[in-house]
Fold this protein.
Amino acid sequence: MVNAASHVPQLVHQLQQEPVSDVGAFRGRQERRLRARFRTQANALFRKNGMQQRRAWVQTLVIVALPIVFCILLAVLQRLLNKALDTPDNRCGCFCNECFKTLSDGTPVLCRSRPAAYYSPCQSWDECKVYDESNCGLQWSDSSQAAFCEIPSPSTWPALAQAPRLDLSQQEALQVAALYTGQDRATSDAIAANLFYNPNTTALQNATALTQLLQSNTSFVYASAFSTLGLVMGTTERGRDYLTNYIEPAFVSAQYFTSSILNLVKNSTDPASEASEANLEGILGLARNSGLKQAPTANITQVDMVWQANADDINSQTYCAYRQARCDGTPSLQAWDFQDTTATALNMRLWYNATMRGRDGPPTILRVNQGLNRATNAFLKWALGGDDRYQAWLAGVMEMPKGGSRLSLDFGSLLGPLFYSWLLQLLLPVMLYQLVYEKERRLRTMMKMHGLGDVAYWAIQYSWFFVVNFIFVWILIIFGSGINLSFFRRTDYSFQFVFYLLWINCLIAFSFLLSALFRSSKTAVTVGFLYVFGTGLVGFLLIQQFVASAYWWVIFLELVPGWALYRSLYEISQYAFRAATQDTQGITWSKLGDPNNGLPGAMIIMAVEWVVFMAAAWYLEQVMDTGVGVPRHPLFFLGWVRRGEKKKASRRRGWRLWGKHKAAAGTEEAVSIPVEAEDVRAERLRVEAMPPGEASAAIAIRDLQKVFPAAGGNREKVAVRGLTLAIERGECFGLLGPNGAGKSTTLNILTGFLEPTNGTAIVEGHDIRSDMPTIYSLMGVCPQDNLLWERLTAREHLYFFGRLKNLKGRELAEAVEAALQSVNLYNGGVGDKQVRTYSGGMKRRLSVAISFIGDPLVVYLDEPSTGLDPASRQNLWSVVKAAKQQRGIILTTHSMEEATVLCDRLGIFVDGQLVCIGNPKELTARHGGYYVFTITTPPEQEGEADALVRRVSPGARLTYALAGTRKYELPVGEVTLPGVFEAMAGARQHLTVLDWGIANATLEEVFIRFAKNMGLEAGAF
């Protein structure tokens, strides 16, 4: 075993090698040496956090793996879904080699197989079993398949009006209503009269249409040629299952629909109308040879214009015409409101049937062009006095050319907002845990007492969290882009950098704000996870719907950071989804100005909340009792604290709590001491004679008072009553007292975690009321509890606190080695084991070593030997005795032996006040003016034994009697030791003395006597 005492000088060598002839110069040099710069503190805290992160490698691995796992999960789901969607219906149509139809009894019958005529394809209601994958194109596609074909030259189609459902099987002419209204009925009637007419198709128009139609081929249909006939055409096919106009479904028959074109006329019985019908049917018959699989039929349809009093009536009629409405309405072709139209200005509103039109999916075909064109031409004819030479005929409609594609659902973008909002908030509970855990375990307090300031702590923790979050986010972005998730790959990376930079800072600031509200780390983590899960789920179920509905008040919901994030991710996902469909770029800087783009607003909210949350977090930590300092007045920034404290001090300045304390004055029943003890008075006069503000002693306490205000119906509690004393450099002062006497309150005031009601203390020339940050850098503390990080080793603890004390390089390494050896944590690699494996005694020895690391000028030891075995206690005492050179030490203990061995002076503290002070021998001699005499006899001889003691010392006081053993206090002035021995020798002739002894009073007996004299129970000690 290494003799720890031989290593003690190494622990304090720095102080001993300094010249001490000039105390002021010595103190100044030590002060400069101990005061660490921000960079040094940052290095210490960063290293400590890094070691903790490395020890928690499982948690780190899970955090790093989660974004990767989520990205892989989304990629796998997307591929499985795309594989399920990759069917012939979702690809460009191919020629069918074998098709079947199913009979009524369910038997499949072969309809056709190659080598059948090339132009005898399966009907759309037949089932194809074998496709010719090498022969695909628009000519083998229906309207939905056409969206996936390569179409360099899209077909052109006539603009059709959307008609309601009609019975196309009836032989007579069809009729359909068209509604109209306007502010001026005469104007509206005149325009409505020109909306439809009886066509008069000429031979030139027929020839032109036929010539254009014959230009069609199997991949291109020039169907807009029908527009040259001068006809107004419509269809009852709603097109709700068709996404594009690459193929007009009105020209393609389906299983439950035979393609039919409506020839919309003013009067179906007019000869010109009948002639146009026959002409249309003839040209449609030629369409099969012009690229169409089947020729549509033609149905002449008379349009009846029906006046409505106002727009509300049109709304009522169109709504009631809906087949599921429980009212009778008029099914209409379309409806027009000409409002305040005049001959010089057309002001019109158009109704159209959008029932079931892609509300929950991609947009489908919308037929409004013909209705708009008819209204425009009718207005022109009316405004020009019936001159129909100036007409704006709509030639046709067509899509843009496109390349081939297959249906691919960007599942990652659709569900991305939910998954990514969870991922990007995942570190919130982790940050909350670290911040609250260090407060809960008072580790933040421990760091502060060793010189780590609040600004340094916040800045360093913020930087650490930023680095961790930044790495986490970019792992997500890089991996997501690597596996081709459109959400990341198609979004501008410079935009992602700025956006996630704002979010990271907002999240960290939010975690600091929440940490000020919690005292339990478990509660904080639970609330954090509930917040993350809840904001993501509510965003998916509600916020997304509100955004899609363009509610303006959604911006107020985005004040919750999680919902601002969800709104942003939703916008990014929508742009990424469209970009994946169109093979373009997603969100870019230029697209932030798009209408209804909520990203700019959400980013502004994040930037503002970043600043607001940090300011609020700092403010709450200042005014709330978070366990890391003295709470300040809510209006401290207006100077209220100073004025309030001055008033409080002035109210209590007249108190002199050495003497009488009036119960009627309103606090509590207290023990009154009529006269201040002489030794206490001498100490007070000595301190009062010291120059104020100068470092005459290591610690100078002046009239220190602490009164806790009344709370919960109880009276106010006076914890410290005018304490005045000074601790010199090189002195270890012991503060003794029963539980509740005020020792811990005094230490809390001296270490800056309670504010005195009155009085102050000067620590090495610095006032605790105004200069605690400097004092923190000068002092070391061994608290009553072992405030240690469970995952760090003893060596790592000492390195961390040594750096806070400005130790560096070789000096730091030597100090750590000496500290480990001095407290017997060096041999066997004990110092390199995690603290959670230590016993209570080992943790206590480490706490003592931490208090002396860096050679502080002042050390507070709060019951340092608690839980130690006798050998370890003796070793620890050697360390403390050697370490008190040129520094002041205040020690609290319940061990009288420890106080006798270590302390140069003792002060007994009872009921908040000092009742005696001096070195242990003086106290024993001064207040222990008696011998302790013990005698044991048979129980039946107790009376004779008592008579013997009374003869030796008439003033003897019986303090204990049990089963023949009796203990007395004999006044020193009444007996002498030779006289006692002589009396006991003579007593043996007539008294059976089993045992006897006499000894001086011990310090413990003096203490107990004081406690009893003050009216307290000795058992409270």
Q: What stands out?
A: Residues 57-85 form the longest helix (29 residues). The first strand starts at residue 94 and ends at 102. Residues 65 and 788 are 30 Å apart (CA to CA).
